[in-house]
UniProtKB/TrEMBL annotation:
Its main location: cytoplasm. It catalyses: AMP + ATP = 2 ADP; ATP + H2O = ADP + phosphate + H(+). PANTHER family: ADENYLATE KINASE ISOENZYME 6 (PTHR12595:SF0), POS9-ACTIVATING FACTOR FAP7-RELATED (PTHR12595). ATP binds at residues 18, 20-23, 114. Keywords: ATP-binding, Cytoplasm, Kinase, Nucleotide-binding, Nucleus, Ribosome biogenesis, rRNA processing, Transferase. The lineage of its organism: Eukaryota, Metazoa, Ecdysozoa, Arthropoda, Hexapoda. The keyword Zinc does not apply. This is Adenylate kinase isoenzyme 6 homolog. Residues 38-61 are annotated as: NMPbind. It comes from Neodiprion lecontei (Redheaded pine sawfly). Monomer and homodimer. Interacts with small ribosomal subunit protein uS11. Not a structural component of 43S pre-ribosomes, but transiently interacts with them by binding to uS11. It is an enzyme of class 2 (transferase). One of its GO terms (biological process) is ribosomal small subunit biogenesis.
């Protein structure tokens, strides 16, 4: 049940970079009418990116500032959030969490196509092999709200979106 009194549920879509979070969120937002909060864009818009990490070749995120900026929208409910991590959001924000997964070889090709090389490429492939984000999600949220979804093919993405839309319809019935 929804203990938060939100008018709509909040959904977290997480997983290793390249598993298909943003591609699926775009489609899910269109189909469901929920609002997609793209954390990577919010971080830029709300000026939450600090100095550049030379090893990982990406800027360091000011997590507290990002979370404070997201709070009002999350309280409204009806939000889809995608991020390549699951542990730094408040647990109370989410009604359900989906962890997207992809086969290592498929993920490798996607990340190479994105221009990832060296340590960044290796670390992200290791992250998927060791199912780091799945473990993070299970450690951060109640087991029964964490679901793993395979995201290797367009057909699987379609099935995933349908499944989440069905869950949403049931949520509306249960929370009338
Ligand atoms: P993420 O947001 O998790 O980093 P993405 O949505 O940008 O990933 O997807 C990475 C690439 O993989 C992009 O070129 C689209 C493709 N892709 C994503 N999901 C897919 C799927 N289920 N089947 C085939 N290709 C997919």
């Amino acid at each position: 049940m929804n203990g938060s009194n939100r008018p709509g549920p909040n959904i977290l879509i997480t997983g290793t970079p390249g598993v298909g979070k943003s591609t699926m969120c775009r489609l899910l937002a269109e189909r469901s009418g929920l609002t997609w909060l793209e954390v990577s864009k919010l971080a830029i818009e709300n000026k939450c990116l600090e100095e550049y990490d030379e090893v990982y070749r990406c800027p360091v995120l000011d997590e507290d500032k990002l979370l404070d900026g997201m709070e009002p929208a999350m309280q409204e409910g009806g939000k889809i959030v995608d991020y390549h991590g699951a542990e730094f959001f408040p647990e109370r924000w989410f009604d359900i969490v989906f962890v997207l997964r992809a086969d290592n070889t498929i993920l490798y090709d996607r990340l190479v196509a994105r221009g990832y090389t060296g340590k960044k490429l290796e670390d992200n492939i290791d992250c998927e092999i060791f199912q780091t984000i799945l473990e993070e999600a299970k450690a951060s949220y109640r087991d029964e709200i964490v679901h793993e979804l395979q995201s290797n093919t367009p057909e699987e993405m379609e099935q995933n979106v349908n499944r989440i839309c069905q869950w949403l319809e049931q949520w509306k019935i249960d929370n009338k």
